[in-house]
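User: Let's play a game. I give you a shape written as tokens, and you guess the letters that built it. Ready? Here's round one.
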């Protein structure tokens, strides 16, 4: 791949991640060169990276188009900017490379705000939240980290639950990493793993669709605040997003989105984590 345009303040920091992202990057995606709200308005399109394997936060509709809580927040954001919305599907592992190589302007992808991730990206204030657990059948005795010894646990690679379980798992725990939550969920359902790291959204899905499995939370790993993610240099866009989130929460717009996808009004958003 050759570069015919000058290296910008954003692309310079992204070059190191380019090789990692190239294999997973669809060739037809046009790089998002905007860094400020004014530049996005001038271009007329907001490009947002969203998950499509993590409903109801990020899934697909009947036409296999991105749909869910995050997509609706992105649509509200584009409306506030007065521009068209381009939703770009991403996965857990390639979210950051897509952002750093300018494939999207922002990630609205159920992205937990952590100290480690903050070294690479700039987070907005939380716009959603979820709880991360170790989930397993009622019959499997797990009351604390020590009970994970000898247990096979599935996690989505590079996810918050991957980090959380890796931190507490004693020697003898087998952690199997899959490409996404959907694949991890299937591994649990098919018996490839005995437990999985997942959020309350996955728990609700299992309770509804597979009640005979009697899946329950065993260990609470984290109360996760999710933020929009921006490139480090894009402070103006991050600041605009913080104002947008505060207004959308105050006006009840985010609560309406939460009710649409989760069946209940949004609780007060958590504060920005401090590290």
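Assistant: Ready! My guess for every position:
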């Amino acid at each position: 791949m050759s570069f015919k345009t000058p290296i910008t303040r954003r692309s310079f920091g992204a070059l190191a991640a380019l090789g990692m992202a190239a294999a997973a990057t669809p060739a037809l995606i046009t790089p998002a060169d905007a860094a400020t709200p004014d530049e996005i308005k001038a271009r007329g399109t907001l490009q947002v990276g969203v998950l499509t394997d993590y409903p109801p936060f990020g899934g697909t509709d009947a036409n296999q188009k991105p749909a869910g809580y995050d997509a609706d927040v992105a649509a509200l954001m584009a409306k506030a900017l007065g521009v068209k919305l381009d939703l770009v599907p991403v996965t857990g592992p390639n979210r950051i490379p897509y952002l750093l190589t300018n494939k999207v302007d922002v990630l609205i992808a159920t992205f937990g705000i952590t100290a480690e991730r903050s070294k690479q990206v700039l987070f907005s204030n939380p716009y959603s939240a979820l709880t991360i657990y170790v989930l397993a059948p009622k019959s499997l005795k797990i009351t604390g980290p020590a009970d994970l010894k000898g247990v096979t646990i599935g996690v989505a690679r590079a996810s918050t639950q991957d980090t959380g379980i890796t931190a507490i798992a004693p020697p003898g725990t087998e952690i199997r990493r899959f490409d996404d939550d959907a694949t991890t969920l299937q591994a649990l359902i098919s018996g490839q793993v005995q437990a999985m790291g997942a959020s309350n959204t996955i728990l609700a899905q299992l309770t509804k669709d597979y009640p005979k499995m009697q899946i329950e939370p065993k260990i609470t790993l984290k109360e996760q605040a999710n933020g929009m993610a921006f490139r480090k240099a894009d402070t103006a866009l991050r600041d605009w997003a913080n104002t947008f989130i505060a207004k959308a929460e105050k006006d009840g717009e985010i609560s309406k989105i939460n009710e649409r996808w989760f069946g209940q009004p949004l609780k007060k958003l958590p504060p920005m984590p401090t590290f």
